[in-house]
Write a structure and sequence with these properties.
With 172 residues, the protein is mainly alpha-helical. It folds into 2 domains: 52 residues, no CATH class; 89 residues, no CATH class. The chain has 6 helices and 5 strands, in the order αββββαβαααα. The strands form 2 sheets. A 3-stranded antiparallel β-sheet has the order 4-1-5. A two-stranded antiparallel sheet has the order 2-3.
Length: 172
C-alpha cells in the first residue's frame, strides 16, 4: 500500500449539516465554520471533519447527503402511512361507538339507562388516540369534547361526573 503524503490528509473535507437548526456554528472542532441549515455543505480540514463526523445525527460527509435525504424521505413516508393507519383505526373505533349509541337510541324501554350510557362512553373512550393532545388532558383523562365527538351527532347527555366515573372504572 502506498504511503500517503501529508497533503492528502490536509485536504479539505466536505461536511454536510443534517440537523434541524436554521444555522449551525461549529462548536465541536471550533473551526468557526457556520452551516446554513439542513443540507448545507462546508469544507473543513481532516482533523475537524473527524471530530464533526462523530455526531452522526448532525453531520455527514458531503457525498453522503443524497443518501441521507432519501432515508429521511422514506422515513417520512412510512410515518405518514403509520399515521394514516392509526387514523383509519380510530375512525373504525369511533364508528363502532356511534353504532352502539345509535343502537341504544333506537331501542325503546332500555332496562338500565346508566349501563347503556356507561357502555357508550366506554366505547368512545377506547376509540380515542391516547397520544393525541386533543383527546386527553395533561393528567391523562379524556376530554369531554373528544368523547362526544367520538360518539357522534346522537350523543346522549352526560357530564364530567359520568365521564370520570366511567374512566376510573376502566383504569381501576
Amino acid at each position: 500500500m502506498a504511503e500517503r503524503t501529508f497533503d492528502e490528509f490536509a485536504k479539505p473535507v466536505a461536511i454536510a449539516y443534517i440537523g434541524n437548526k436554521e444555522f449551525k456554528k461549529d462548536t465541536i472542532a471550533r473551526t468557526g465554520v457556520v452551516w446554513s441549515g439542513f443540507g448545507d455543505i462546508q469544507y473543513v480540514d481532516g482533523r475537524a471533519a473527524g471530530q464533526l463526523l462523530r455526531f452522526k445525527d448532525v453531520f455527514v460527509k458531503g457525498e453522503q447527503l443524497d443518501e441521507v435525504k432519501k432515508k429521511l424521505k422514506k422515513s417520512a413516508f412510512e410515518e405518514a402511512e403509520k399515521a394514516e393507519r392509526e387514523a383509519l383505526e380510530a375512525a373504525e373505533r369511533a364508528a363502532a361507538a356511534k353504532a352502539d349509541a345509535q343502537k341504544l337510541l333506537d331501542e325503546e324501554g332500555s332496562d338500565d339507562a346508566n349501563d347503556d350510557l356507561k357502555n357508550i362512553i366506554t366505547n368512545a373512550i377506547l376509540s380515542l388516540n391516547s397520544d393525541n393532545e386533543e383527546h386527553f388532558t395533561e393528567n391523562g383523562k379524556p376530554k369531554i369534547a373528544a368523547v362526544r365527538a367520538a360518539i357522534g351527532e346522537d350523543c346522549p347527555e352526560f357530564g364530567a361526573k359520568e365521564l370520570n366515573a366511567v374512566f376510573e372504572s376502566l383504569n381501576g
